[in-house]
Amino acid sequence: MQYNKNWYSSLRKSPLTPPSWTFSFVWPILYFMIFLSFYLFFTSSKKFLSYGFYYFIIQLLLNLSWTTIFFSYKKICFSFIITILLLFFIILTIREFYKMNKLSAYLLIPYLIWVIFASYLNSYICFQNKST
Protein backbone atom coordinates (compact mmCIF):
# COMPACT_ATOMS: atom_id res chain seq x y z
CA MET A 1 0.00 0.00 0.00
CA GLN A 2 1.29 3.40 -0.96
CA TYR A 3 0.79 6.25 1.44
CA ASN A 4 1.84 9.84 1.72
CA LYS A 5 5.09 9.77 3.70
CA ASN A 6 5.10 13.55 3.97
CA TRP A 7 1.71 13.48 5.68
CA TYR A 8 2.80 10.83 8.19
CA SER A 9 6.14 12.51 8.90
CA SER A 10 4.35 15.83 9.53
CA LEU A 11 2.29 14.33 12.36
CA ARG A 12 3.23 14.86 15.99
CA LYS A 13 4.25 11.43 17.23
CA SER A 14 5.15 9.95 20.58
CA PRO A 15 8.78 10.12 21.68
CA LEU A 16 8.47 6.31 21.98
CA THR A 17 7.69 5.89 18.27
CA PRO A 18 10.22 3.40 16.91
CA PRO A 19 11.99 3.93 13.58
CA SER A 20 9.82 3.00 10.60
CA TRP A 21 11.93 -0.07 9.72
CA THR A 22 10.83 -1.63 13.04
CA PHE A 23 7.29 -2.10 11.75
CA SER A 24 8.41 -3.93 8.61
CA PHE A 25 10.56 -6.18 10.78
CA VAL A 26 8.01 -6.92 13.52
CA TRP A 27 4.80 -7.42 11.52
CA PRO A 28 5.95 -10.37 9.36
CA ILE A 29 7.03 -12.19 12.52
CA LEU A 30 3.73 -11.41 14.21
CA TYR A 31 1.72 -12.51 11.16
CA PHE A 32 3.62 -15.80 11.09
CA MET A 33 2.79 -16.35 14.77
CA ILE A 34 -0.85 -15.31 14.24
CA PHE A 35 -1.37 -17.79 11.41
CA LEU A 36 0.55 -20.55 13.18
CA SER A 37 -1.70 -19.94 16.17
CA PHE A 38 -4.78 -20.23 13.96
CA TYR A 39 -3.45 -23.41 12.35
CA LEU A 40 -2.88 -25.02 15.77
CA PHE A 41 -6.33 -23.95 16.90
CA PHE A 42 -7.95 -25.15 13.69
CA THR A 43 -6.27 -28.57 13.77
CA SER A 44 -7.13 -29.17 17.43
CA SER A 45 -10.63 -27.69 17.45
CA LYS A 46 -13.55 -30.08 17.59
CA LYS A 47 -15.88 -27.40 16.23
CA PHE A 48 -14.54 -25.41 13.30
CA LEU A 49 -17.21 -22.72 13.47
CA SER A 50 -16.70 -21.80 17.10
CA TYR A 51 -16.42 -18.50 18.94
CA GLY A 52 -12.64 -18.74 18.59
CA PHE A 53 -12.94 -18.93 14.82
CA TYR A 54 -15.30 -15.94 14.63
CA TYR A 55 -13.22 -13.85 17.04
CA PHE A 56 -10.11 -14.65 15.03
CA ILE A 57 -11.75 -13.55 11.76
CA ILE A 58 -13.08 -10.34 13.33
CA GLN A 59 -9.70 -9.38 14.83
CA LEU A 60 -7.98 -10.17 11.52
CA LEU A 61 -10.40 -7.94 9.59
CA LEU A 62 -9.92 -5.14 12.12
CA ASN A 63 -6.15 -5.56 11.88
CA LEU A 64 -6.16 -5.43 8.09
CA SER A 65 -8.54 -2.46 7.95
CA TRP A 66 -6.40 -0.33 10.26
CA THR A 67 -3.72 0.47 7.65
CA THR A 68 -6.23 1.65 5.05
CA ILE A 69 -8.18 3.76 7.52
CA PHE A 70 -5.09 5.34 9.06
CA PHE A 71 -2.90 5.89 5.98
CA SER A 72 -5.29 6.06 3.02
CA TYR A 73 -8.25 7.80 4.63
CA LYS A 74 -6.14 9.58 7.27
CA LYS A 75 -8.80 8.90 9.91
CA ILE A 76 -6.39 8.90 12.83
CA CYS A 77 -8.89 8.88 15.69
CA PHE A 78 -11.17 6.37 14.00
CA SER A 79 -8.17 4.09 13.55
CA PHE A 80 -7.54 4.43 17.29
CA ILE A 81 -11.06 3.15 17.94
CA ILE A 82 -10.24 0.23 15.67
CA THR A 83 -7.18 -0.59 17.80
CA ILE A 84 -9.37 -0.68 20.93
CA LEU A 85 -11.79 -3.05 19.23
CA LEU A 86 -8.85 -5.05 17.94
CA LEU A 87 -7.49 -5.44 21.48
CA PHE A 88 -10.87 -6.62 22.70
CA PHE A 89 -11.13 -9.28 19.98
CA ILE A 90 -7.52 -10.41 20.39
CA ILE A 91 -8.23 -11.02 24.09
CA LEU A 92 -11.41 -12.93 23.23
CA THR A 93 -9.50 -14.95 20.63
CA ILE A 94 -6.76 -15.82 23.13
CA ARG A 95 -9.36 -16.90 25.67
CA GLU A 96 -11.13 -19.17 23.18
CA PHE A 97 -7.93 -20.57 21.66
CA TYR A 98 -6.67 -21.42 25.14
CA LYS A 99 -9.63 -23.75 25.61
CA MET A 100 -8.61 -25.83 22.57
CA ASN A 101 -4.83 -25.47 22.36
CA LYS A 102 -2.77 -23.56 24.92
CA LEU A 103 0.16 -23.02 22.54
CA SER A 104 -2.16 -21.38 20.00
CA ALA A 105 -3.18 -18.91 22.72
CA TYR A 106 0.39 -18.26 23.88
CA LEU A 107 1.49 -17.51 20.32
CA LEU A 108 -0.90 -14.54 20.30
CA ILE A 109 0.61 -12.88 23.40
CA PRO A 110 3.39 -10.99 21.49
CA TYR A 111 0.70 -9.78 19.06
CA LEU A 112 -1.43 -8.55 21.97
CA ILE A 113 1.55 -6.72 23.49
CA TRP A 114 2.47 -5.13 20.15
CA VAL A 115 -1.11 -3.98 19.56
CA ILE A 116 -1.23 -2.46 23.05
CA PHE A 117 1.89 -0.50 22.14
CA ALA A 118 0.47 0.40 18.71
CA SER A 119 -2.73 1.60 20.42
CA TYR A 120 -0.69 3.89 22.60
CA LEU A 121 1.16 5.27 19.55
CA ASN A 122 -2.12 5.74 17.67
CA SER A 123 -3.77 7.44 20.65
CA TYR A 124 -0.85 9.83 20.99
CA ILE A 125 -1.14 10.79 17.31
CA CYS A 126 -4.92 11.12 17.65
CA PHE A 127 -4.80 13.44 20.64
CA GLN A 128 -1.76 15.46 19.52
CA ASN A 129 -3.10 16.04 15.99
CA LYS A 130 -6.69 16.97 16.74
CA SER A 131 -7.37 18.70 13.46
CA THR A 132 -7.14 15.40 11.54
What does this structure look like?
The structure is a single chain. The chain is an all-alpha fold and 132 residues long. The protein contains 6 helices and no strands. The relative contact order is 0.18. The mean pLDDT is 93.
Q: Whole-number radius of gyration? A: 16 Å
Subunit arrangement of the protein? single chain
Class by alpha and beta content: mainly alpha
The unreliable regions are none
Largest sheet: none
Give a nutshell description of this structure:
This protein has 132 residues and is an all-alpha fold. The protein has helices at 5-10, 20-44, 51-72, 76-100, 102-106, 109-128.
Topology:
Layout: H1 5-10, H2 20-44, H3 51-72, H4 76-100, H5 102-106, H6 109-128
Helix pairs in contact: 3-4, 4-6
Tags for this model:
132 residues, mainly alpha, 78% helix, elongated
